[in-house]
Every structure is written in structure tokens, then in C-alpha cells.
Design brief:
Elements (H helix, E strand, L loop, with lengths): L9 E2 L3 H30 L6 H13 L11 H19 L15 E2 L7 E4 L2 E4 L8 E2 L19 E2 L3
Antiparallel strand pairs: 1-5, 2-6, 3-4
Amino acid sequence: MLAKRAYKFRFYPTPAQEQALAQHFGCGRFVYNYMLARRQQRHQDGQRSSYGDDAAALTLLKRAPGCEWLRDVSIVALQASLRHLDTAYRNFFAKRTKFPRFKRKHAAQRYSLMRNGFTLREVRLTLAKIKRPLEPHTARRSVQSGGLPRRGRPLLRQPAL
């Protein structure tokens, strides 16, 4: 049986990386809110929505005039926002939770990546569409010396303002 292992690191990005991460946070929030409003409108019109419909609409949205800036971020992060919205809808209709809410700008910011959205080599995390790898810092042991902390996972969060 395979055991899953996780590592926890804290990353202190450079100013350029902070800007790229903020752009990913904003675009993920925009896509989630846009598709939530789209699903609500389609529900009022008597039409059904699914993840596939949202993914096709995302492709059209990225080509739309005025939304070209969505091309500057990783598609993996945008698709993760669609998956989170689809999960929220499924949980609502299964009566496990309340109706999905719009995401706010001043709450804790985060985005998710699947396995193809990042690479982890020698404890350096390289994210899709961010050029330089993020350097980890840990209080337990020096990561540069090759030692990994006992617990951990990459933290891709911006604290709430």
C-alpha cells in the first residue's frame, strides 16, 4: 500500500512573484464569480449547467474582447475555480451545504493547482506561468542543506487584509 506524504513550507515570494500570485488570485476569483452569476442566470432561464458548459464558456471568455488578461494566468488555476464551483453546486443540490456565495476580494486569497500546474524539484516549487521558482523557508531545518521538515505542504495563500 502506498503512503501519501505531505510537507509544509512557507514561501516568501519576490515582488514580481507576489504580483503574479495576486493576478492568479484575482483571475480565479473573477472566473468563479462570473460562472456563478452565469449559472444563476441559466437556472432562472430554465437551463441546466455543468462543468463542461462552464469550461466551454471559459474558453469563449478568454477570447472575448476586454478579457484577454485571463490568458496571462495558468489555465489550471482557472479550471480549478470551475471545479470548486461545480463541487459547491453539487453539495448544495445534495442538501449538504448552503447555496454558493460570491468570492470577496478582501477575504483570504488562494487558488488550487492540479499535478500538471506545478513542478517540485529539490524543494523548489515552480508554478505554471510564474517564471522563477519559489524558494521555501522553514524554521526547523535549512531546506538548502537538503533536509526536509517532517510535516508540510506548499502554502499558496495571501492573508486576509
